[in-house]
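Propose amino acids for all 221 sites.
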C-alpha cells in the first residue's frame, strides 16, 4: 500500500498532535491511540493491514509523546488525554472506531463516558481493563522513570534494558522500531521520545487519582 500521509490535529489548549493517515474510508474510519511512553509508530503494521482492508486509519501521537507537542502546564491527567481523543474524533468528521492500548484505551473510555459520549462507534481495548492493578501500573511507571535523566548511550543499551524488563518477549534483531521511540539529545545520548514531565511524581499521582475516580464513576465496567 502507499505510505501514510502526515496530519496534525490542533487541541483546544493549543498543542499540535502529530498523526499518520492510512487508506480511504470505504468501510469506515479507525482512530488508534498508543500506550503511555509509546508513539503512533507502534500501530504501523496494524494500521497498514486495516487500510488494505478498506479502512481509513489515523494513528496519533498522544500529547507529550513522539512528535506531538509537550504540555506547557504539565497537564498529563487522564481527562486531558480523553479530551484530546474526543477532539481528534470530531476533526475526523465522524464516529471512528477507537483502538486504544493501555493509556490510549483508558483515555478513550473516559472520553466516551465523561467528556463526549458518542465520540466513537466502538472501543477496542489492548493491554488495559477498566479496573487496573495499582501494583502493575506502578511497575510500569517505575520502568519508564528509571532512565529519564541519564538516557542511553546506544540503541543496543536501550534494547538490553527492555529485554531485562520483558524477558518473556523475543528480542528483535532489528532496532529500527525502537529507534522511533527514542530521541537524541544535545549531549548525544538517547532518551525516550516523550516529555519527562509525563512520569514525574506530581503527574504520576494525578494520573492515578484520575484513574481511581474514573473507576468509581463507571462501576458497571
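Proposal:
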Amino acid at each position: 500500500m502507499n505510505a501514510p500521509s502526515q496530519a496534525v490535529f490542533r487541541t483546544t489548549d493549543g498543542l499540535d498532535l502529530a498523526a499518520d493517515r492510512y487508506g480511504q474510508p470505504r468501510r469506515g474510519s479507525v482512530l488508534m491511540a498508543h500506550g503511555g511512553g509509546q508513539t503512533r509508530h507502534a500501530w504501523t503494521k496494524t494500521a497498514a493491514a486495516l487500510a488494505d482492508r478498506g479502512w481509513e486509519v489515523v494513528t496519533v501521537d498522544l500529547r507529550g509523546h513522539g512528535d506531538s507537542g509537550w504540555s506547557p502546564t504539565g497537564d498529563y491527567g487522564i481527562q486531558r488525554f480523553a479530551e484530546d481523543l474526543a477532539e481528534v474524533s470530531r476533526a475526523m468528521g465522524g464516529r471512528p472506531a477507537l483502538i486504544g492500548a493501555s493509556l490510549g484505551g483508558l483515555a478513550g473510555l473516559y472520553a466516551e463516558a465523561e467528556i463526549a459520549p458518542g465520540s466513537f462507534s466502538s472501543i477496542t481495548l489492548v493491554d488495559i481493563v477498566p479496573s487496573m492493578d495499582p501494583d502493575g501500573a506502578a511497575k510500569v511507571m517505575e520502568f519508564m522513570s528509571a532512565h529519564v535523566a541519564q538516557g542511553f548511550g546506544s540503541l543496543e543499551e536501550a534494547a538490553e534494558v527492555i529485554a531485562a524488563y520483558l524477558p518473556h518477549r523475543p528480542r528483535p534483531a532489528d532496532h529500527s522500531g525502537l529507534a522511533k521511540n527514542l530521541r537524541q539529545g544535545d549531549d548525544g545520548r538517547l532518551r525516550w521520545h516523550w516529555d519527562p514531565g509525563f512520569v514525574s511524581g506530581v503527574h504520576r499521582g494525578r494520573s492515578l487519582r484520575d484513574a481511581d475516580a474514573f473507576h468509581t464513576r463507571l462501576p458497571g465496567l
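Residues 134-196 form one domain. Strands lie at 5-10, 16-22, 28-33, 55-60, 97-101, 122-126, 182-184, 190-192.
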